[in-house]
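Need residues for this backbone.
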């Protein structure tokens, strides 16, 4: 996008008044969004966003400026602005800007730009019809959303690294609202990945829609959830909301170094059951949170954060790695060129165990089975959380019983990881946009089926169940 010689001049200007490190992030992002509501496609939007962000790190401080003027003059003006925040002697640069190679590569079968808008609209309309066909009488509203993003980035820094990368992501979601008398319930399902339009070869839009609509309709017939302390089985298909929110954010290095994480000061200590290993791996093929390079030009890699219950590492960007005199492990991410990079998750998951999921359920005398997590709140400083259950069932004598609604899960993330008693051999992923410091980035998270000895379940019915997990 920009000649290397100009990038060298920009970096040299950024460090003209001193500083320890400088980099430039140049982005061209093309996106398409299609929305359908009330049976009509009401929004077809496409756009292009182009710009550059320039950063200088001086000791523990960061200066950042961005511009959508990619001329030499525009970039030099932004570099001059950030240079004034640095102190010390001018850093002489003799950059070669060597092109880095990723540790992993990805391929895309159907690039969004090669797919006519009509085909994209067709999958949205097909999903709308499929959702309404589940129950024409009870499905009152269907919202379908399609989106794709093609992001081309160029990254160069004062250490002589040069990266060119392309990221293509496609996502698809369906929300269905069902009503019967005064009772209203909502079902939601979303799929997506680091991929093009080939997403719909493995995730048929009609199936996504039917899953959301059936969940809404079945919830109309669900009974009240029990309340109290009880064993809880989190199914693999529930996805990794728990590990992402109640554990993952606390393992991001900036929160750790600020003392805002429950895991601060616990490196190499036992923080979870020996059944638990937590990994963040942005190199997974096709996953929504995957990337070849992070947004600082560091190659993505698999990072084991908790190994058989022992805290082994955190997720680092360059700034927080500098503070600890170590290297980044590829977790510096940003929403766009308008944002500075911070430590973020990519694909975070609990590693699968060896127990069959069906056996885990059989070992629970009575409790709650969670098949779909809803929204919630987490305090990263303490690890305390409250989550809604979007789809849950009673477990009675080791068998899945009736569906219940209105359940919430309350607990503490680190404590929950300590009382996990069984870990399944499956692994289920969910996708989302993770928010932090006003920035949103695409992520996925996952977990196998896990049995938690006891959680506080909030509901509207008291006294049932009050069981135990039978040890294998």
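Answer:
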């Amino acid at each position: 996008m920009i000649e290397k010689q100009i990038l060298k001049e920009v970096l040299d200007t950024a460090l003209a008044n001193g500083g320890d490190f400088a980099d430039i992030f140049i982005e061209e992002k093309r996106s398409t969004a299609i929305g359908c509501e009330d049976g009509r496609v009401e929004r077809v939007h496409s756009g292009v966003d182009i710009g550059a962000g320039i950063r200088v790190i001086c000791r523990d401080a960061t200066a950042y400026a961005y511009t959508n003027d990619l001329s030499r003059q525009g970039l030099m003006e932004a570099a001059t602005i950030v240079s004034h925040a640095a102190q010390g002697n001018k850093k002489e640069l003799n950059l070669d800007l060597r092109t880095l190679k990723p540790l992993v590569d990805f391929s895309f079968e159907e690039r969004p730009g090669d797919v006519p808008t009509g085909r994209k609209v067709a999958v949205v309309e097909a999903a709308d019809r499929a959702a309404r066909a589940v129950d024409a009488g009870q499905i009152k509203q269907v919202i379908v959303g399609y989106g794709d993003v093609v992001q081309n980035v160029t990254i160069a820094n004062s250490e002589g690294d040069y990266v060119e990368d392309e990221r293509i992501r496609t996502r698809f979601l369906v929300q269905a609202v069902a009503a019967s008398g005064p009772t209203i319930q909502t079902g939601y399902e979303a799929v997506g990945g680091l991929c093009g339009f080939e997403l719909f070869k493995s995730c048929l839009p009609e199936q996504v829609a039917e899953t959301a609509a059936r969940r809404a309709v079945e919830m109309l017939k669900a009974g009240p959830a029990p309340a109290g302390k009880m064993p809880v089985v989190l199914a693999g298909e529930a996805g990794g909301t728990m590990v992402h929110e109640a554990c993952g954010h606390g393992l991001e290095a900036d929160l750790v170094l600020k003392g805002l994480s429950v895991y601060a000061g616990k490196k190499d200590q036992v923080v979870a059951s020996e059944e638990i290993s937590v990994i963040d791996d942005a190199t997974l093929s096709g996953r929504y949170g995957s990337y070849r390079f992070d947004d600082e030009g560091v190659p993505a890699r698999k990072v084991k954060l908790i190994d058989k219950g022992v805290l082994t590492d955190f997720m680092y960007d360059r700034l927080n790695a500098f503070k600890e005199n170590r290297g980044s492990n590829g977790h510096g991410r940003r929403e766009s060129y308008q944002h500075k990079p911070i430590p973020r998750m990519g694909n975070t998951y609990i590693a699968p165990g060896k127990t069959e999921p069906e056996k885990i359920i059989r070992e629970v005398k009575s409790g709650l089975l969670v098949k779909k997590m809803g929204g919630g709140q987490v305090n990263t400083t303490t690890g305390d959380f409250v989550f809604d259950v979007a789809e849950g069932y009673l477990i009675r004598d080791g068998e899945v019983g009736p569906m219940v609604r209105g359940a919430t899960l309350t607990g503490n993330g680190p404590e929950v990881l300590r009382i996990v008693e069984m870990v399944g051999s499956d692994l289920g992923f969910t996708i989302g946009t993770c928010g932090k410091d006003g920035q949103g980035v695409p992520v996925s998270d996952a977990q196998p089926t896990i049995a938690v000895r006891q959680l506080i379940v909030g509901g509207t019915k008291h006294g049932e169940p009050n069981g135990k997990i039978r040890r294998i």
